[in-house]
Amino acid sequence: MNNQPASSSLKWSLRLGSLAGIPVYIHATFLILLLWIALSYWRSEQSLAAVIHGLGFILALFACVVLHELGHALTARRFGIRTRDITLLPIGGVASMEKMPDDPRQEILVALAGPAVNVLIAGLLWVWLSLQGALPASSSALLEGGVLQQLLALNLFLALFNLLPAFPMDGGRVLRAVLALRMDHLKATRSAAAIGQAFALWLGLVGLLYNPFLLFIALFVWIGAMAEAGSEEVKSLLHGSTLEHAVITHFETLSPRDALSRAIQLTLEGVQKDFPVLENGQIVGVLTQDDLLRGLQEQGALASVASYMQTDIPRAEIHEPLEKVMKELQDCPCHIVAVTRGGQLAGIINMENILELLRIEAALKGIGTGTS
Ligand SMILES: [Zn+2]
To answer: Would the pTM of this model clear 0.85, i.e. be above it?
Structure first.
């Protein structure tokens, strides 16, 4: 449905396979949706054929959603942007792109590519059905038709729904990009978010009067607009900042041979929660507070740090932009990124420190943003 930069595959997702080199995941809640549909068909029809028919239809519909996301992903690839994965959720699909194009013209094309795929599918179905003489006389009769007629109608719906001019819909991105042709990116995002929220209010009112389902969409749009505007504020505050601005250079460390009791002592003495584990001046792991507690529960305070530390630590050079590291921090269970200068450990960075920097930058610029 929407093409989000940031966060990679969500937890609780199963890998289905890959398309054009992009892994496709299905979220556990989607399986619950399938179960629910199977059960409701079974209840109303009491036949296995009806259940298979119902599930087949939903799977065909979600195949269209995957193709929609693939449209975004392949267009982004043309502009050199990788897509980490496509995940299917009960509310639609999400293509996690590394970033959105900086050029508004490219962003417009990437955003439009998804709905364009649904228009294309609807067009192909329309041609096929009209060759078969199976096209109903009116468009409203489509939904009462067979599977292909319903798929045609739903693909048109998907295209229109995603073109609503509000975040997190594709139409919201098109609107922002069109505005960004005339003004700077932050201003364009603010305006697009405001338009999206006005739209959400209107939708909510219509929903109150006519259809409660619209209220749900209005809420979704309202939250989407706020999230997009918020992340754009953060981006603009962090713009130009490198790791050097937020790196922590004073911190306690552990050795892999230390006992967990050493980590307890350090935890109680100070405010640090996650401890880099060093060997010969090189970072070999991190013991987070969760790792420590797990170790204490399983083996007690005499267990070694080495058996509970995490060894997969992201690294970044000190001159790299903070924005890039933020994404890695959000995805990594280790809570820190090892900051190096010329390959040597120069410090660590964690999310709390970046948030502190953000609050300071916001205060300096006189912006009252809540960045939490
Ligand atoms: Zn989309």
So the answer is: no
